From TrEMBL:
Keywords: Hydrolase, Magnesium, Metal-binding, Nucleotide metabolism, Nucleotide-binding. Pfam families: Ham1p_like (PF01725). Gene3D superfamilies: 3.90.950.10. It comes from Dokdonia donghaensis DSW-1. Its EC number is 3.6.1.66. GO terms for cellular component: cytosol. One of its GO terms (molecular function) is ITP diphosphatase activity. Binds 1 Mg(2+) ion per subunit. This is dITP/XTP pyrophosphatase. Pyrophosphatase that catalyzes the hydrolysis of nucleoside triphosphates to their monophosphate derivatives, with a high preference for the non-canonical purine nucleotides XTP (xanthosine triphosphate), dITP (deoxyinosine triphosphate) and ITP. Seems to function as a house-cleaning enzyme that removes non-canonical purine nucleotides from the nucleotide pool, thus preventing their incorporation into DNA/RNA and avoiding chromosomal lesions. Belongs to the HAM1 NTPase family.
Length: 191
């Protein structure tokens, strides 16, 4: 089986490839020659995932899944949420995003947060969505060198390490993307 994962992000691609069975060949946007910037302008995480999956299906003809992820911080009324990647500006700098978030939480007692991933799967005229959530908290400083995005400041509930301090296999198992992928793979098995 051949599926396109609508991403250019090599870290995301590796994380997803580690979760899927060997008989599923995952192609990236680069692999199919999609160099255009797919505009993600939906007001929700789910909406952005659907936009990407439908775009690839409509323009390239491949069955495609896409994800969108947001970090929702309780003390910030769910922000940065759908704007997580560009929280500190259009440059999409993970370092700038973390700095802005840590400053916004400096005077807050409640540091609870959750990562939410929605995977949209576009096949023929059909769209299915799958949601994975990982509850945790925002640390007061960065810990760890692995991972990407907000991983150095997000500590999942029940663990003393941030995502950036964890092995990819553990993060994949307990994390938001892994949970959404588990639902998606279950759906594929049933199809």
């Amino acid at each position: 089986m051949k599926l396109v994962f609508a991403t250019h992000n090599l870290n995301k691609l590796k994380e997803v490839q580690a979760l899927v069975p060997e008989h599923i060949n995952i192609l990236s946007l680069t692999d199919i020659g999609c160099d255009e910037d797919i505009i993600e302008d939906a007001p929700t995480i789910e909406g952005n995932a659907i936009i990407k999956a439908q775009y690839v299906r409509n323009h390239y003809g491949y069955d495609c899944f896409a994800d969108d992820t947001g970090l929702e911080v309780t003390a910030l009324d769910g922000a940065p949420g759908v704007y997580s990647a560009r929280y500190a500006g259009p440059q999409r700098s993970a370092s700038d995003n973390m700095d802005k978030l840590l400053i916004a939480l400096a005077v807050k007692q409640n540091r609870t947060a959750r990562f939410k991933t929605v995977i949209a799967f576009a096949k023929a005229e059909k769209i299915e969505t799958f949601t994975g959530i990982c509850e945790g908290e925002i640390t007061k400083e960065r810990y760890g060198d692995d991972g990407f995005g907000y991983d150095p400041i997000f500590k999942p509930n029940g663990y003393e390490a941030t995502f950036a301090q964890m092995a990819m296999a553990l993060k994949g198992k307990i994390g938001h993307r892994g949970r959404a992928m588990e639902q998606f793979l279950s759906y594929l098995r049933d199809e």
